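Technical note accompanying the year-one report. For the benefit of new consortium partners, we illustrate the data format agreed upon in the data management plan: each record pairs a sequence with a structure-token string. No post-processing was applied to the example shown here.
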Amino acid sequence: MKQPIALVLFAATCFVSGCSSSPLTGSPATDGESAAPAGAAGSTAAPAGPTSTFASYPAGPYGTGRGATIQNLSFLGWRHPDVAKYDINQLETLRLSDFYDPDGHTGIKLLAVNASAVWCSVCRSEYVDMNAQGTYATYKAKGVEMLGTLFEDNAYYPAQPTDLYHWGSVSNHAVAFPLVIDPSCKMGAYFDSDATPLNMLVDVRTMTIVSVTMGYSTTYWDTVQKTLDAL
């Protein structure tokens, strides 16, 4: 989806306090930029999420293009959104180092990072398609973990926890993979055009960026399969 002003808005809105977008469906119990940690009273414990090895995260220099080592970014979200029931009181910190696996003990080979915005109809279509096709379950079994990031709401303001709730829990998304908000536009550095969404593949053995794709087509996961076959 072509949005000529999107990249400008990355810089313009990174430091603006955003408002939450109109709900896709339902409503959460509370609002706000911060949330109580997972495991608070009355919460349901989630199964073990992505776990980092005890090896140190790869040292820099870090870059933003193919072949570069990606910086150890951190976000607020859920490792298992469905288990947490998209409860913004159970948000936790996720870091790319949680997925780093230099010795291959997790069986995960690639991390598929997606950067979407609530205003982006193509982003919504991608999530609907992944849900309908069972993409996450299919590719997780093949060694691909996913990380969804949400950077802006319907009004182009930085995404808030309520936006993450509406995005993840709407029935035709029903997100089960790690899902986070990116209100400070950390993923903006990896966009090389004004098309959204961004889809990035990272080799978790080295945290090297394998590919960056702007926009989405229904053949995208065919290219992911080819990448897997070449590893």
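Partners are asked to follow this layout when depositing records. Strands lie at 74-78, 92-95, 110-117, 144-152, 179-181, 198-203, 208-214.
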